[in-house]
Design goal:
The chain is α/β, with parallel strands linked by helices. It is built from 20 helices and twelve strands. The chain has a six-stranded mixed beta sheet with strand order 6-7-8-3-9-10, sandwiched between helices. Helix 1 packs across helix 11. The termini are far apart.
Length: about 575
């Protein structure tokens, strides 16, 4: 247990920069002086009691009273200063760790992001990291205070009378036995608690996100039952944990609260035997009343520390995950011919094969369409080109250079990627479009918006191009978001264009205009298009039929139709779908 806490504390301290470690040390020293000041009232009280009992030098008692008052004021000042320093470190650490995690996520392969739910990642970045603040802001100085005061008092008592000191240790031994057993239960249950919490968080996020579908289709009882079940599991787990540890917690609390019960009989007996004076008898009773109360905070500190240790280990695990590798000889591509080639590429998710020995070539300024059933690997192909993942086997080349040897910033500039699920950020429309090119002028932004057929609806927004979008701003339809994404791609002017169902949400009134915009966007570019609307790729230079991770057919539209194969069947089904009329079927 203690080894785990020590290792976890080292990880927590390693998260800090040098200046923050120095500040934490200053906070510890300030708290140390605060603890020293808290000892002065004990010595002052001893002298005051002695003067009162023996009616000797009462003027000295008043002097000690002033010393006690002054020491209390100084203690408060040092303690406040220690908390100020520790909280400064705490909030800086929370800021830095969150930034490091977000930056780390951007460097991990997309597989990690898709394998871990948004609820889990949100829980780590916000809730877990917020808990770490307690370690830096409270535990570092306050544990010293909670341990320092009993330590100095214990040393004082042992020096004055070791018999009383031995008696005072008895409740501590009982307390430590209970604490150890409680911590063993914690170590046993912590990982399971985090897992159950994540399930509850995921169920809650799923329920909230699915509220629209629930209202449309019903099924609230079934969806809510998953959240209710996750909530019930969490409740039962926590109640069971408490039942297992309640006797230990109660015993330690009672023992620490009753420390005077152990000291009073022994001190009284020694006083009757006249081995200690009345002054020391009263002093020991008073010390026994003050000695154990700081120790009562230790279980709370160990609970929080254990939580923070497990959080620190999880965060450290993420920060040490392998990033997408970049070879030492990675370089920029200067003479761009924009050729893309797959050579014997294998790839899969979680042991499940998706692409199998895939090889094809896309020449400069060619338009290649990818079609096929869902789950066949089409989106995976364009994601691999963008290097969301690295291939398991084989190679992907751009201009003869393995993309693993191309700098990430260069690859990002080479590729514009428009998907069917577009994100807009909580910023102005102008800034959302400007993501495509941070150096774009206002005229270029407006022209890109016009070319993407979104200028008209932007003008109708409350503040035009300055309208704030996103969660707290104005909401856009799926088609409007898609046109914003196309405006970004137009502005980016990348030589390689990847379109993954880029027209999925476009309404019929704007489809012809958008097709014109896409034609302008695709001019003089190397383009790979994923489409379920087969009419959008009729004029492609090549069409690849992807099924079960393999190329089943390859050719131009007319060639594939004449082959009377899989593509021909898809084309017939597509035309039947266009001829379908509500209530009457196919015309």
């Amino acid at each position: 247990m203690f080894k785990n806490i020590i290792n976890g504390s080292k990880i927590l301290m390693n998260f800090l920069e040098y200046d923050s470690r120095k500040t934490i040390f200053e906070a510890i020293m300030a708290e140390f002086f605060s603890v020293l000041c808290s000892m002065i009232p004990m010595f002052g009280l001893y002298n005051i009691i002695e003067n009162i009992v023996y009616k000797d030098n009462m003027q000295n008692s008043f002097a000690w009273a002033w010393i006690i008052l002054l020491s209390i004021v100084i203690k408060i000042i040092f303690h406040g200063f220690a908390l100020k320093l520790s909280h400064k470190v705490a909030y800086n650490a929370v800021f830095e760790i969150r930034n490091r995690l977000i930056l780390k996520f951007s460097k991990l392969n997309q597989g990690y992001m898709e394998e871990n739910s948004s609820g889990k990642l949100k829980n780590i970045v916000f809730d877990d990291i917020e808990s770490i603040e307690q370690f830096y802001g409270h535990q570092v100085p306050e544990i010293l205070s909670s341990l320092g005061i009993p330590l100095f008092l214990g040393i004082f008592v042992f020096i004055t009378d070791f018999r009383i000191g031995l008696v005072m240790i008895i409740p501590i031994l009982i307390f430590l036995i209970c604490l150890r057993k409680t911590n063993l239960l914690q170590n046993k249950n912590f990982q399971k608690m985090f897992f159950i919490q994540q399930n509850l968080n995921n169920a809650m996020v799923e329920y909230i996100n699915a509220m629209k579908e629930i209202k449309i289709f019903g099924g609230n009882e079934k969806v809510f039952s998953r959240f209710e079940s996750a909530s019930e599991n969490y409740k039962e787990f926590m109640v069971g944990w408490f039942k297992d540890s309640r006797h230990l917690m109660t015993t330690s609390d009672i023992v620490l609260a009753s420390g005077v019960v152990f000291v009073f009989p022994v001190a009284g007996y020694l006083y009757i035997l006249q081995e200690i004076s009345m002054v020391k008898f009263l002093l020991y009773i008073f010390i026994s009343l003050c000695f154990y109360s700081p120790l009562a905070k230790i279980p709370q500190f160990t609970d929080i520390l254990n939580i923070n240790v497990h959080i620190a280990q999880r965060v450290d695990f993420i920060l040490k995950l392998d990033e997408l590798s970049v070879c030492d000889n990675s370089r920029k591509i200067c003479d761009i011919s924009n050729n893309i080639s797959f050579e014997s590429v294998y790839f899969g998710y979680g042991g499940e094969s998706v692409l199998k020995n895939l090889s094809f070539r896309v020449n400069k300024n060619e338009i290649v369409g990818l079609v096929g059933p869902s789950g066949g690997g089409k989106s995976t192909i364009v994601k691999l080109i963008s290097r969301f993942w690295d291939v398991a086997e084989g190679n992907i080349f751009i201009d003869g250079v393995d993309i693993r040897n191309i700098r990430q910033e260069t690859l990002s500039k080479l590729i514009a990627y428009v998907t069917q699920n577009v994100s807009v950020f909580e910023m102005s429309v102008r800034d959302n479009i400007k993501i495509g090119n941070e150096n774009a002028t206002d005229e270029e932004i407006v022209q890109a918006a016009k070319d993407a057929t979104c200028h008209e609806f932007i003008k109708k927004l409350p503040n035009g191009y300055e309208t704030i979008l996103g969660k707290e701003g104005v909401g856009l339809s799926g088609g409007e978001k898609q046109r914003i994404a196309i405006a970004r791609a137009l502005l980016k002017k990348s030589p390689i264009l990847l379109l993954d169902e880029a027209t999925a949400y476009i309404d019929p009134d704007n489809e012809s205009k958008l097709q014109e915009a896409l034609s302008r966007l695709m001019k003089d570019k190397t383009v790979i298009v994923i489409a379920h609307r087969l009419s959008t790729i009729m004029n492609a230079d090549h069409i690849l039929v992807i099924e079960n991770g393999e190329i089943k057919e390859n050719g131009r539209h007319e060639e594939l139709i004449n082959m009377k194969g899989r593509y021909s069947e898809m084309w017939d089904a597509y035309n039947r779908g266009n001829d379908w009329v509500l209530g009457r079927g196919v015309k």
